[in-house]
Amino acid sequence: MGSFAVRIASSVFTPPLDQDCVPGYFVAWIVYHEMLHASTRYARERPPSLSHAGFPRRGAHLPRVRARCAWEKQNLDRLLKV
Fold this sequence. Notes:
Layout: E1 2-5, E2 10-13, H1 24-43, H2 54-58, H3 65-81
């Protein structure tokens, strides 16, 4: 749904996130996830392309975590087909 482009230090998001059916809390998670890639890249913790085990733990404080996980589980296939 998103990727962090190291060379331009910018995140890119896929068009399916721009659908009316996608809740804001899900989009916020994707944005946060890509920001973590940027922060880990510049902190030299890990290569930016890896979503390591610490990512979910870092996002656990965000509101609606369970709702985001449930929504993703129910809708990811549909989003990837767009």
